[in-house]
Amino acid sequence: MEDKKKSRAPVSQQSFKVEKPTDLNTIGGTVTVELNEKKVSVPFGTTILEACRDNQIHIPTLCHHDDLCVAGVCRVCVVEVEGMRTLQAACAFPITSPIKVKTSTSDVRKARRHVIDLMLSEHFGECYSCIRNNNCELQSLAEEYGVDGYTFGHVTKPTYEKDLSSYSVIRDMSKCVLCKRCVRTCIDLQEVGVLEAIDRGDKTHIGTFLEKPLADVICINCGQCINRCPTGALHANDPSDEIWAAIEDPKKHVVIQTAPSPRAAIGECFGLEPGHSMTYQLNSALKRIGFNGVFDTNFTADLTIFEEGTELIIRLFKALVQKDTSVALPQFTSCSPGWVKYIEHFYPEYINNLSTAKSPQQMFGAILKTFYAQQIGIDPKDIVSVAVMPCSAKKFECNRPEMNSSGYQDVDFGLTTRELAKMIKEAGIYLPEMPKQHFDTPFGDASGAGLIFGATGGVMEAAIRSVVEFVTGLKVEDVFANANVIPVRGFEGVKYYEIPIAVVGPVPDILKHLVPDWNWLKGATLKIAVAHGTANAKKVMDDIKSGGKFSECHFIEFMACPGGCIGGGGQPIPTSLEIRKARAKAIYEEDESLEIRKAHDNPYVTMIYEKFFTEGPCGHLSHKLLHTHYTPRGKYIS
Amino acid sequence: MEANSIKQKRTGIVLFSEYKRGEGISKALEIGRENILFEVRSSKLKGRGGAGFPTSTKWMLTAASKADEKFIICNADEGEPGTFKDRVLLMEYPELVFDGMVIGGFTIGAKVGIVYLRGEYEYMLSFLEDYLEKMRKDNLLGKNIVGKNFDFDIEIRLGAGAYVCGEETALIESLEGHRGESRNRPPYPVNRGFNGCPTSVNNVETLASVPHILIKGGDWYAKVGTDKSAGSKLFSISGDCKKPGVYELPWGTKISEMLKLVDAPSAKAVQVGGASGICVPESQFDRTFAYEDIATGGSIMIFGKNRDMLKVLKNFMEFFVEESCGQCTPCRIGNVKLLEGVEMIEKGEFTFDYINKLKDLGKSMQIASKCGLGQSSPNPFISILDNFKDEILNKIEAK
Ligand SMILES: Cc1cc2nc3c(=O)[nH]c(=O)nc-3n(C[C@H](O)[C@H](O)[C@H](O)COP(=O)(O)O)c2cc1C
Ligand code: SF4
Ligand code: SF4
Ligand code: SF4
Ligand code: SF4
Ligand code: FES
User: Fold this and answer.
1) One domain, residues B20 and B94
2) How far is A280 from A438, CA to CA, in rounded Å?
């Protein structure tokens, strides 16, 4: 049975996970059931829904989501189980005895249609004016059940005011069908707990703590709830109109950076199967739309490796050699703004462990309005900087008041994958057929190290590829076959890994001013960990708090979203483990196809340290432009 | 307050008959689990909270469920409109209820019993606590009960006032500190209930019947009532009659007999089973209270000649619209639609076609809702509109 302590969701919102037998050949390991008169044998504890899916029987669902625990509340999945007085929710019914199931009796069809009719009667929205048109599960259900009118009427006015307070997530509860996927996402998948059903009966609605606007509660802006909302009730705060206006304004120089994850996923918005990277097609599409410069966020991801890696070396040197006990270790990555806000709310006492390095998005923003502006001779005030991100939290991040070290707001707009796809469609472009084109100068194409930032473990792998070479003087390929650091890859919630440092090499030029030699690292073991999804982050943090094994780590990568950025809250809908795996695969394949796969081999990074950040990583200018600070927020909101 | 000081003079075949405090407990601990289960089984006792599940089976399943901790919960939420029999049992016959709990706890292997007391019954709290204290003093609770090496204690928790919290899984959610929402079943509480542990939830009256069964024997109890409905039942009778109150009657009693007893000569309808029950018209007054005919948790409302049945229905539907936990679609929105239908009839703005569609909807609600509330909430809509079609139609024509 599922460990109930692990979940914060009420049991009414949890599944009854029957432990499936490991050996199906044991007595009772399988159960023979009849599905529409067909006898099949299923593992003990399989739900009716799973059993039907495995046997090509389609059952409509709405509140069910493969990533989430079962709610059993929408009731569109009802089926008949022989001998039971009422219909049963297929998603919530574990098979533990030889039952007989019928999935399409007249009672079943009628009940499903009634449920859909009822939902539509209270659903305020017209599909053609809705962000989820053609990508909405309610709409599909209505189509599937041949809804051609409103049997029980239809609301003609919005029932709730929209909550527009958040930079990241907009809540339009008039379109909510109370499937509670967002609630379960937030409390159970992410363990944040912002949303809950409030009031009873016909007044029931999804609300926040004391019904406060989303911007004023502990929402970390991860957008995971958006990705799992079946309707248009939740969506990201879309800046595309402002971006169009900037593009059309001849005085503005509009530049855009694209992150690797949107490139690996945006094809899905154009009907491609998950797992097709569109990096170079996107470049030409963006130019055609009218962006003046198209850049690769991976450039600053490579730069992040330098800044964050250097910071780690400084911390380790201070702690191990200078015996400075004030140094906060393990160092935490800081490139996921959802994670950053999570730690600010839930573990504010640990914000000193966060790397002060900005995220790649924000580094790029600062560089574009300083170095780049100088290079092309444009007043930074006329630069409009857009970032295509897989992420809704990036919208909040670029609006953080401290993110203006260039003298202007470093990044003006965070645009999600979905929103960019919409802009491309509006421009009359079918992305998959666009010609391939490289990124613009002076930042060019970046390394594969920056690219794999998009998947969980990627930052760690990129860091390892550089740190191993810096410290040991060996080729990373000699340590990890083909430079693939497999132990930090994959979708396991928390990964832990140790790298013994047996030999040390000479200190590379770029770090010479920081450490005299590496002898102090000889014989040491570098302990690292990777966690994705804030629920997993929580496990690691609680372990650190109680002095467990993770407290002895040196460096930990945290990503707020399950799967890392490829599973971000701005990515195409739907999402599932299979889809996230396919996107990750696309990223790793692209990495392997590249000539340059290590951040320190990126010639443009070398160039910018030579030309601009002349004091090297963690120098004065880089501190000013590439580093930031955090705000302890706490959980209690006034 | 002296425990028995407010006891009225009541008489009845089982519950309202003589019983000596602690007697059932001693007997139970003497004869052991198997024999208790045997007696309860032969008594054919079914749950009195409304669902009518055989009590011996529930206890057997809980007993058979492997776990370190188990619980017995006394459901004293008594939220069904028109019922107040559990209140009488708790205030006048606490020895039956608590002895029943101890016996049940012993049978299933629980060390803790919890009474989930309706919020409105807070005034009973000090009386009941005092009573429990007295039991502890007399070694009927606590460690080594009556010297038989059995530890058990009872705590009382106050409910939060929602009708749905009487539904056993919503009750458990509420006890755990969550919103009162019913859970998915399976798993049933007997396998995974309070705090994830096997839990038997029993109605006050069910528990109160057990000590008598042990003392007088299961066979004796099974002889009361009818073949399929063994024993007696408490009825909370209210409405248009001269002698409202709580009555103990054997199962199989006719509605007409009951009406005579409470002196209600001008009744035109009887709502059996509270808001979620069914409305029986005069033409069917020879029907009986029995699991095989009209099953009920005991709420009886009598409507006299002058009652407006549409208003009665509207009251019920308003109750459900408000009391639905709001979790599942059929109940949350379905009840609103049914209420709107009643309002349409009230205003005379309806078509028969639409009313039939609503009845159809009601039937879907009965089978597709997640818990008993939504499954039974269309009952009054369907039964009142079916049985009082003429009255409601005449009313429209009169307009
Ligand atoms: C909406 C709803 C309300 C209920 N309210 C009560 C109640 O107030 N008291 C009660 O004993 N059972 C109530 N029940 C029945 C319980 O779910 C459960 O079946 C009962 O407590 C089991 O005890 P029994 O087997 O002794 O009847 C209610 C059920 C539903 C669906
Ligand atoms: S949420 Fe879905 S059904 Fe509703 S208006 Fe939008 S597309 Fe249509
Ligand atoms: S954005 Fe993330 S934290 Fe905010 S409500 Fe949604 S799931 Fe919860
Ligand atoms: S906001 Fe979306 S996910 Fe949340 S309950 Fe409503 S429809 Fe479901
Ligand atoms: S039937 Fe009603 S009370 Fe029961 S779970 Fe559904 S909404 Fe809640
Ligand atoms: S999908 Fe099963 S109840 Fe919603």
Assistant:
1) yes
2) 6
- Strands (E) located in A426-533: 494-500, 525-532
- The predicted pLDDT at position A1 comes to 30
Amino acid, single-letter form, for residue B151: D
In this structure, the number of other CB atoms found within 10 A of the CB of residue A34 comes to 14
| Lining residues, ligand 2, CB within 6 Å | A 123, 125-127, 130, 132-133, 136, 138-139, 175, 231-232
Distance CA A634, CA A343 (A): 9
What is the CB-side half-sphere exposure of residue A530 using CA atoms within 13 A? 27
Task: State the angle between helix axes of B23-31 and B33-43 in degrees (0 to 180), rounded to the nearest 10.
Answer: 120
Task: Report the nearest atom of ligand 4 relative to the CA of A173.
Answer: 1
Read off the pTM. Answer: 0.95
Helix (H, G, I), strand (E, B) or coil at A251: coil
DSSP assignment letter at A435: P
CB A24 within 8 A of CB A30: yes
- Structural domain including B317 reads 309-398
Q: A102 to chain B: which residues are within 8 Å by CB?
A: none
Q: Are residues B267 and B218 in the same domain?
A: no
Distance to chain A for B328, nearest Cα, Å: 4
Backbone angles phi, psi at B32, to 5 degrees: 85, 165
pLDDT tops 50 at residue B132: yes
Nearest CA to ligand 5 atom 6: B328
pLDDT band at B395 (very low <50, low <70, confident <90, very high): low
Give the per-residue pLDDT at A22.
73
Do B46 and B173 have their domain in common? yes
pLDDT band at B387 (very low <50, low <70, confident <90, very high): very high
Beta bridge partners, B71, equal B112, B199
pLDDT digits (tens, 9 = 90+) for B313-328: 999 999 999 999 999 9
Half-sphere exposure in the Cβ direction for A189 (13 Å, CA): 28
Which contacts of B335-341 are long-range, i.e. CB under 8 A and separated by 24 or more positions? B335/A201, B335/A202, B335/B365, B335/B374, B335/B377, B336/A202, B337/A118, B337/A121, B337/A152, B337/B361, B338/B362, B338/B377, B338/B378, B338/B381, B339/B314, B340/A153, B341/B381
Is B227 domain-assigned? no
Is there a contact between B367 and A89 if contact means CB atoms under 8 Å apart? Answer: no
Domain termination site, one of B253, B286, B304: B304
Whole-angstrom distance, CA of residue A551 vs CA of residue A554: 8
**Of the listed A268, A397, A419, A557, which one is catalytic?**
A397
State the ipTM, two decimals.
0.94
Query: Using one digit for the tens of pLDDT, what is the confidence trace for A127-181?
Result: 999 999 999 999 999 999 999 999 999 999 999 999 999 999 999 999 999 999 9
Using CB atoms, which residue from B169, B333, B375 is nearest to A122?
B333
CATH of domain A240-299+361-433: 3.40.50.1780
Q: Write the pLDDT tens digit of every residue in A248-284.
A: 999 999 999 999 999 999 999 999 999 999 999 999 9
Burial of A367 (0-12, 13-18, 19+ CB in 10 A): buried
Of B111, B114, B110, the C-alpha closest to B158 is: B114
Question: From CA A144, how far away is CA A141, in angstroms rounded?
Answer: 5
Boundary-marking domain end, from B190, B222, B254: B222
A55 contact partners, CB below 8 Å, separation of at least 6: A35, A38, A40
Nearest to A412 by CA among A533, A249, A607: A249
Q: What share of chain B is helix, strand, coil (3-state, %, to 5)?
A: 50, 15, 35
Do B212 and B240 have their domain in common?
no
The CATH class, in words, for A2-104 is alpha beta
CATH code, residues A115-236: 3.30.70.20
- Interatomic CA distance for residues A88 and A16, integer angstroms: 14
CATH no. for A303-358+446-637: 3.40.950.10
